[in-house]
Amino acid sequence: RGMLGLLTLVVIFSIAAHAEPQTSTFTIRAHQICDDLEHPVQIVADYNAPDYMYVVERGGLVRTIKHGELMPDDLLDLEGSVSTKHAHGLLSLAFSPTASNRKNFYASFIDVQGDIIVAQFPVREGEPADADSMTVLMKLAQAFPNSNGNQIAFGPDNYLYISSGDGGGPPENIQAAQRRSSLFGKILRVKPEPHGGYSAPSDNPFTSELHALAENWALGFRNPRHFSFDNKTGALFVLDEGMRLVEINRVERGKNYGWNEMEGFSCLHINCQTRSFQAPIATLTNAPSPDDSIGGFVYRGARFPELQGRYMYAIRSLGEIRVLKESTDGWKDELLLQLPKKIITAIGPDSHGEPLCATEDGELFALTA
């Protein structure tokens, strides 16, 4: 069951070579790995154990896949501890790349009170971790149910990065994205301690600034739901869901990405000082609504040489997987393939950098040549 589905699509790209336009044609098949998932929201590879990958389910389970087969034992069971209202749920998973902290893994979710939780769990060989083994690393008490952000990932520097939305609610609360004294509307960077708790790295940008919180790495985001690191360059790419459009930002230490003074390339207020803010590398307006875009990673696999260095993302309701290609005059958006009648809920690379996507009806696909 689940191994027979193949969707075949032919994709044509125009590639400039020696100033002469050429056409490169290659075939992509969406090969179904399994169809027994429940609302998958993230696909995570453990680079220290390349035979395994994991699928985060919104309802609270982390499913284990080994050698392309869905295993009966889950990595984590938080059913009953997470809220599934609004855009809530168990949303993200991260494995520590350092040998000193390989006994733990990390998850982020919205709890039943509507607060953002980043938690640490001990690795238990052969059986799932559960809520009783959880140590809360960070809690962000959120008064409003929207704009949670809430992804986690370890960077190439071995620190844990956390995305937080602006907290939602009325305009006075949305200002939190611009306040360095708030953890909302930010990318955070911390060092988890093996036995619980965390510290802020000394080279975080605001550690010596009065009233600023040391965890803050970059600011000015509305709802940074998905981010990833380029495995070749280490660059951090953040998909930030705006009110009217989606931004793709290449995020750097200490920079301000504009919300709620700017959205995309436009000011939202009369006295906006654009020189104070970093513009996105691209804005996405081809989805029916801003919350319809699913990030996203820079492709560095070997299977599709034509896609090297392109940022791959999805449009949920259209079943589209698209790529952004950097050129001399900006980033160009191209349709890569479409899964007919599918709603894509997650996209990410396996441990070899090859693309996977998951759908709302519980299917997991590998994209193959």
State the main characteristics.
six-stranded mixed sheet
Topology record:
Blueprint (H helix, E strand, L loop, with lengths): L5 E12 L2 E15 L5 E6 L6 E6 L3 E6 L2 E2 L5 E2 L12 E6 L8 E7 L5 E7 L6 E2 L4 E6 L8 E6 L5 E5 L6 H4 L11 E7 L5 E2 L16 E4 L6 E4 L6 E6 L4 E6 L10 E2 L2 E2 L14 E3 L8 E6 L12 E5 L4 E8 L2 E9 L5 E6 L5 E5 L4 E5 L1
Parallel strand pairs: 7-11
Antiparallel strand pairs: 1-2, 2-30, 3-4, 4-5, 5-6, 5-7, 8-9, 9-10, 10-12, 13-14, 14-15, 15-16, 15-17, 18-19, 19-20, 20-23, 21-22, 24-25, 25-26, 26-27, 28-29, 29-30
Shape: globular
Mean pLDDT: 89
Radius of gyration: 20 Å
Q: What is the count of β-strands?
A: 30
Largest sheet, described in full? 6 strands, mixed
What is the helical fraction, as a range of percent?
A: under 10%
Q: Helix- and strand-based class?
A: mainly beta
Number of helices: 1
Strand content: over 45%
Parts with pLDDT < 50 across at least 5 consecutive residues: 8-24
Distance between the termini: 22 Å
